[in-house]
C-alpha cells in the first residue's frame, strides 16, 4: 500500500514538474550544435555526446598529486562514533527544511520545494524509504552522478563556455 502510494506521488510530482516547465516556456539551449577541437560543427547527437564525454574527461580528470598524505603515520581508532540508529523524523524535517529552493531536481525529478511542502505524509514516506535503504540496499540511482551542462557567457558552440 505504502509503495503504491509512493509511486503514485512520484508520478504526480513528475507530471506537475512537466506541466510547470511547459507553462513556463523555458527553453534549453543545450541542444545547440557544438564544435570539436578543430572547430568543426558536430551535427549528430552521437558526435555531440562523444565530444561532451571527451571534454568533461579532460576537465574533470586531473593528474595524481605529486605529494600525498602519509596515512601510515595516522593512528586509527578501533571504533568510530557513528550513529547507526534509524533516521528520525526530526532529522528528516530539519534536513528537508534546509534544502535550497529554485535548484534543479535530481534524476528522480522531485524538487526541493515539493519535499519541503509535502507535509507529514511526505516526511513519513521519506523516513520509511531512507531507513529501508540504510538497513538493506541503496537505490541504484543514488550511486550515480549526472553532469548537467550550463552555459557561460560567450559562444555556446565551444564546450569551454559551459559549466559542468
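-> sequence recovered:
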Amino acid at each position: 500500500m505504502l509503495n503504491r502510494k509512493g509511486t503514485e506521488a512520484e508520478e504526480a510530482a513528475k507530471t506537475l514538474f512537466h506541466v510547470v516547465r511547459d507553462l513556463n516556456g523555458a527553453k534549453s539551449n543545450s541542444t545547440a550544435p557544438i564544435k570539436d577541437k578543430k572547430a568543426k560543427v558536430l551535427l549528430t547527437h552521437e558526435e555531440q555526446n562523444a565530444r561532451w564525454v571527451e571534454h568533461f574527461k579532460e576537465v574533470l580528470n586531473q593528474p595524481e598529486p605529486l605529494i600525498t598524505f602519509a596515512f601510515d603515520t595516522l593512528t586509527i581508532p578501533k571504533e568510530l562514533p557513528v550513529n547507526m540508529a534509524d533516521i528520525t523524523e526530526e532529522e528528516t524535517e530539519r534536513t528537508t527544511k534546509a534544502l535550497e529552493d529554485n535548484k534543479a531536481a535530481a534524476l528522480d525529478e522531485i524538487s526541493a520545494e515539493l519535499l519541503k511542502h509535502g507535509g507529514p505524509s511526505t516526511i513519513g514516506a521519506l523516513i520509511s524509504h531512507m531507513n529501508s535503504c540504510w538497513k538493506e540496499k541503496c537505490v541504484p540511482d543514488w550511486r550515480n552522478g549526472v553532469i548537467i551542462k550550463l552555459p557561460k557567457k560567450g559562444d555556446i558552440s565551444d564546450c569551454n563556455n559551459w559549466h559542468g
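The chain has one domain: 2-10+30-62+86-163.
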